Structures are given as structure tokens and as C-alpha cells.
Amino acid sequence: MWELLNSFEHTAFRLEVRDRYDEPDEHESLEKYLAGEPDDLSWMQEWFDLVRKATTDGKRFSRVRVVTVPLTDYSRFGLWCAQFTNNAGEDIRYLPRDQADASGLPKHDYWLFDSTTLVRMNFADNDTFLVSEVINDPAEVAQHNYWRDAAWNHAVRRDDFASQHLRRG
User: Fold this and answer.
1) E strands in the chain
2) Residue 119 dihedral angles phi and psi, to the nearest 5°
3) For residue 6, what is the enclosing H or E element?
4) Are 83 and 169 in contact (CB under 8 A)?
5) What percent of the chain has pLDDT over 70?
6) How far is CA 118 from CA 53, 71, 81, 114, 135, in A?
7) Residue 138, exposed/middle/buried by CB under 10 A (0-12, 13-18, 19+)?
8) Per-residue pLDDT tens for 57-114?
9) At what angle do helices 158-165 and 73-88 cross, to 10 degrees?
10) CB 110 within 8 A of CB 144
11) How far, in Å, CA of 64 to CA of 15, rounded?
12) Rounded to an integer, what distance in angstroms lies between the CA atom of residue 169 and that of residue 155?
């Protein structure tokens, strides 16, 4: 996956549809967030550097997070973290789950690179990442482009969403 994240030419889009992801690197930071303790987010530095370099090179990272409202603790943590990712150059937006469902968006996560390379993200029931799957079928790629556009059209900028759903940060 890192190869694709480092080699796309113009755009990288991610649709996230889960209310929780079990990422070991996040555990300590999530606990600090929930306890109201400061955190330097050092575990995200590699991502920040990747996004900064890409955007400096004229590339675009964007993401829509589909979330259940009221937000879970994990979604509140992700919303808080997104301010720093946005500062690095990624445009993260939010879409309430009921709107995503009404728009017919998929129930799976994916990356779409340059509108031509589709990578479906597969997770276990316990929220751990299993495997990414590159899909080359033109009809599936076209469908995921449609879903990207629909999600983006209905999503709300991170800061606007946070002002309504996040008490701090």
C-alpha cells in the first residue's frame, strides 16, 4: 500500500466507513485523548511527512469519513486527529452514516488513486486490518469513482463538522 501512496500522480482518495479501527500505533494516543492528556502524535509523523511531500509536489490527498452520530469515542479521537492531518495537507471531510446510507454508499473502505486504481480495504469483525485488494475491473472502478463523488458532494469540512460534534480541539 505504501508503494501506491508514494507513487500516485494526481489524487488519492479514501472512503472510511467503520466507526472503529484497531490500529496498534493509535492505542496509546487514543487513551491519552480520552483521558484529556496532551499527545505529540509522533506515531503519525510518517503520514504527515508523506502528505506534506505529496501536496508540495502538487498532489492531492482527500478522505471522507462516514460516522455514526452521536460519535463514538474512537470517531471523536479521529476527528481531533484530523485537524493535524488537514494541517499537513490532507482534506478530510465527514458524512453522517444516515446520509451515507441514503446516498447508497458502500459498506466497505477503499482507496482510489488517480481515479483509475482501486484498492479495497478488508477488515476483520474485531476491526483489525486484514488485507488490501487491488481491483482492476473497469466497471467496479467506475462505480467507486461515482461513490467518491457522491460522498464528497454530501460531506462536511472537518472544521465545520468538529464545531458541531467535538467539544474540544
Assistant:
1) 11-16, 60-67, 91-96, 109-113, 117-123, 129-135, 156-157
2) -125, 110
3) helix 2-7
4) yes
5) 98
6) 22, 28, 25, 9, 5
7) exposed
8) 999 999 999 999 999 999 999 999 999 999 999 999 999 999 999 999 999 999 999 9
9) 150
10) yes
11) 5
12) 20
Average pLDDT, the chain: 95
Longest dimension (CA), the chain: 47
Q: Could you tell me the pLDDT band of residue 169, with boundaries at 50, 70 and 90?
A: very low
CATH number for the domain that contains residue 137: 3.30.870.10
* Residues of the domain holding 22: 2-165
**Backbone Cα Rg of the chain:** 15
Q: Amino acid identity of 118?
A: L
Q: Phi and psi (nearest 5°) for 132?
A: -105, 150
Query: How many Cα atoms occupy the beta-carbon half-sphere of 32 within 13 Å?
Result: 13
DSSP string for 22-66? --GGGHHHHHHHHHT-----GGGHHHHHHHHHHHHTT-EEEEEEE
Number of domains in the chain: 1
Whether the CB-CB separation of 158 and 82 falls below 8 Å is answered with yes
Q: How far apart are CA 8 and CA 125, in angstroms?
A: 30
